[in-house]
């Protein structure tokens, strides 16, 4: 037993009021599905059922798209930007006011530690709404012409890793630009989107501007293929993204895709080692590694390999895995049984292919979905764990000798979403950033997000940019 | 005896052979990224220490306090009062642990030595022309020797920041070695005055310089400049003692001093010790708080935990 044993410090669940069942949020009201079923959303840390959620059928999606169209034509489209801004500012403030409630609900439904939902997810959600609220009356100055027009109805499908943050990335710019939306949250994490729907009601957002249709793959397919949708935005796996691109090819719809990644986190021998190790840990173990831009491939210069690995292992032994609502927990639960299975399978393949597997001693709870933080050393570019996205707390460690080799290995992937560079040399950071084929290159940091900064991928990581001024382009007719 | 301890940086004894080797070594230490270090410290500051963990941490923090008075206005009466407080921090609770040490100016050492006799509480004295360190070496050594002769068993010396910032590392090194010799058996705490070194790279280099020169403790500050013991600075120093032990086998203590005024802050430092250097440092032999007002807040929080209610400041002694 440790000398300094931190007593449990659970955040109270009493701030959230989870209803036993939820309908669909269409035209400003919660309604029952007409042709859909129901699915259960569970707490991945305990497998307890949190709520029953409607599964929207094609008819329900059609109702939602019609409501969005009517709101676009009659209310939101003609509304002056400064008035749209007022609603968005109001939503942003309500998110801040109800921040604790949102954070607890996010951790319950997703399994992420409360420290992250409280300190990262929810503050960023509010920040994205504030940021795009500011753009709503300044669109003529965004560089897209003197009077850029919205596209109409946006159909948006988001993933389960940052449920509310991905909603904000989608809804805030769409609404600021004058579009209305039909959004489908992920089937395992719909609850904060439904709470967001309540916030829209509280903000007196005109009916039909935001519609939330819960459900699984079929619902998502109905959203993106609906002929009344003018714009499709998807964040999720490359496989599903490819299917969406095929499904809407030849239509008038505009498309942005934010897909998978296999980012290289590159540590040079002159890096600030202690901070680089923090960055490695944050890069791959933040949000249990359920991050599309996770630094899942560590590239270490051979001359500091031993020092970095020793330091990394010591640091990993300090990671606290367990109850996501405990304020002292660093790593929470894997989001679903299916995802846990995928992480296990790929990890077993890694070991079979000859990489050396290491995890710190760590006690995992009996119930729920858990995976200990894991690193693989002796990984080569040919290993599947160096090529495929694992989307879990699993790091593949490779080495390099020269900057050119680092670039070559970092770019040698079908993906290109993000990369990290750790060095004390400013000139080398710029040299690397010029050559890395990745949408985001972080220098001496990792997994940092800001509403003013565009985010998106190269190659199989997708196309289009979200965030910043660039993020407006996806929702304007330019 | 002294000679072997001063060169105890076993594998590193060659480092101080010349100005060039010392400089090469200190400048070859991995850099510190300021933003990253501050983020790490801020994250550690979010740990929520409650109930049993809090009670344990408060008692440990009390045992780690170097109860300090370093004023021009110090008198024997003031110092005696402080020593009484050190012996029995909470008059209402004999079970309350005593502090680690009392820290005074050299002229007050005889008074404090008499007042602390038989208590087991260490007696620390600042020396070497505290707080500026701007005096000839002979004066500093005499200052140190006088404090030890009068009964101090711990010496808190200041490094010569001017020389350090001028890059004259071997002169700083030689001074620490000389003071260490003048200390005899007394423990040497080396004050880096991190608020004047400014950068974390400097803090890391000064930490290693002091450790190689034979420091038993490295200490952040005198408490006499505006920026004293911050959490990130202490984090960098804890990394230094952790790495120094890994390199040489010798364990060095850390003492943040100045600016730590309440229990919440003290607990953040203990969390940082725990998650940086590790639990081997969670002991008054290896970690101290240089403080005066901190103690009463620790006592108030301790009473709150045992009785369930806050008592006013008038229920704790002002010394």
TrEMBL record, chain A:
Record key words, sorted: Oxidoreductase
The Aldehyde dehydrogenase domain, residue ranges: 31-477
Domain of life: Bacteria
Pfam families, per the entry: Aldedh
UniProt-listed InterPro entries: Ald_DH/histidinol_DH, Ald_DH_C, Ald_DH_CS_GLU, Ald_DH_N, Aldehyde_DH_dom
Residues forming the catalytic site: 258
UniProt keyword annotation of Oxidoreductase present: yes
GO molecular function terms attached to this record: oxidoreductase activity, acting on the aldehyde or oxo group of donors, NAD or NADP as acceptor
Stated family: Belongs to the aldehyde dehydrogenase family.
Protein name per its UniProtKB record: Aldehyde dehydrogenase (Acceptor)
Organism: Micromonospora pattaloongensis
Organism classification: Bacteria, Bacillati, Actinomycetota, Actinomycetes, Micromonosporales
From TrEMBL, chain B:
EC number: 4.1.2.4
Gene3D superfamilies per UniProt: Aldolase class I
Secretion signal, residue range per the UniProt entry: none
InterPro entries in the cross-refs: Aldolase_TIM, DeoC, DeoC/FbaB/LacD_aldolase
GO BP annotation list: carbohydrate catabolic process; deoxyribonucleotide catabolic process
Keyword Lyase in annotation: yes
Pathway as given in its UniProt record: Carbohydrate degradation; 2-deoxy-D-ribose 1-phosphate degradation; D-glyceraldehyde 3-phosphate and acetaldehyde from 2-deoxy-alpha-D-ribose 1-phosphate: step 2/2
Catalytic activity: 2-deoxy-D-ribose 5-phosphate = D-glyceraldehyde 3-phosphate + acetaldehyde
Family stated for the protein in its record: Belongs to the DeoC/FbaB aldolase family. DeoC type 2 subfamily.
Protein name: Deoxyribose-phosphate aldolase
Taxon lineage: Bacteria, Bacillati, Actinomycetota, Actinomycetes, Micromonosporales
